[in-house]
Here is the input.
Amino acid sequence: YFQGINTALQGGAPPDVAVIEDRGWMQAGLVEDLSQYFDQWGVAAEDFNPGGLARGTEDGDPSTPPIYGIGDFLGGNVLVYNKDLFDAAEVEYPGTDASMHISEYVDLCNGLAQPNADPAQTIYGCSMPEWGFGIQGKDVFGPDGRTPLGNINSEEMIAAWDMGTQVIRDGNAPSPDALEQASESDLFAEGRLGITWTDFTEIPKYQDNDITFGLAPFYVIKEGESFVDTFTAPYGTFVSSPNQAGALAFLRFLATDAQRIRMEETSDPALDFTLAEEVGYGEDDPVKAEYLAVLQHAQPQVFVPPGIDAWDPAEVNRLMTIENQTDSRPILEEMAATAQEQADEVWVDWEELAE
Here is the structure.
C-alpha cells in the first residue's frame, strides 16, 4: 500500500484520499492539514479521543495543529478476563479505573492457572504477549522518543521481562509453541485462559461461546500509570491530490456524520468521544459501557521515526522462553546500546526530511 502511494506521489498523481499512516508524508509537507477545516466542519480536536486522533499527527500530539488524518472509530488494545475462572479461584476482578502493574498481572496469572498433564486440559492464567512489555513507546524510547538507552534497559523493563517470562516458563501462560496451536483469542473463547488482550473485534466470539467476561485497561510496567493503546484509520488527502474538494467533502463526512453511523452500524465507539457520550454509547449494553470506560485511559504515543530495528521483543521473548534464559539484563543492555546508535541516526534523517 505504502509503496503504491509513494510511487503515485513521485509521479505527481497521488490518490484523493489515503490512510495517512506514513508520517514521513506529513514531515515532508505532502499532506493537507485538516485542522484548518475543523471550525468549518463544526468539530474540535478536543472532542476526539486523543489516543486515536494522535495517529493522524506527525509528532503524536493532537492538542495542537497540524492534524493530517481523521477516522470514524476508536479501537483499543484492552484486557478481557473470564469472570467464572476468577470466581472459581476466588480472585478479585480487575477494575476499569486504573491499570494493573505487571506484578499484579503476574500474581493474577499464577492464581488463575490450572496446570494439567494433558495440554488440551490446561487452563492458563494469562497470556503474556511479547509486544506488551513495550506497548507504551515512552517505556522503550523515552518521553522524547530519542533515548532508548536507559529505557530499553531500565530497571522497570528488566523486572517486567524477568517476571513476565517466568510465567511462561512455569507453564502458567501459553508459550510461543502453544500459541502456534491455538491463539489467545481461541483459548479464551474455549474457557482455557483467565485474562488476555483483545482489540474488541473478538467480543462477539466470546459472547457466542457464553463466556462471562469483563474488561480492564492494559497492564503497565511502571507503578502508578494507567494506559490503553488506541488506534483509528487516519484518512487524509495530499496537497497535490487532483480532486481535493471531493476528498475534503469525504473527510468532513468522516469527521461528522460517520461518527454517529459508526456507532449505529457496528459495536465500535466513535473517535468523537464527546458524541459517544452524548448519544449514550453503551447505555443499553454493559460490555460497551465497560469498553468506553476503559478507553478513557487512552493516551497519545510518543513519536519515533522508523528505522530502529535493534529493539526486538520477539528475540527477547525467544531467548527468555525457548532458550530458557532467566536474566534479561544483558539482552536488553545490548539492544539498548545499538538502538541508541540507530536512534541518533534516524532522528537526523527525520529532521532533514522537513528541509
In short: The longest strand covers residues 75-82. Residues 41 and 72 are 14 Å apart (CA to CA). The chain has a mean pLDDT of 95.
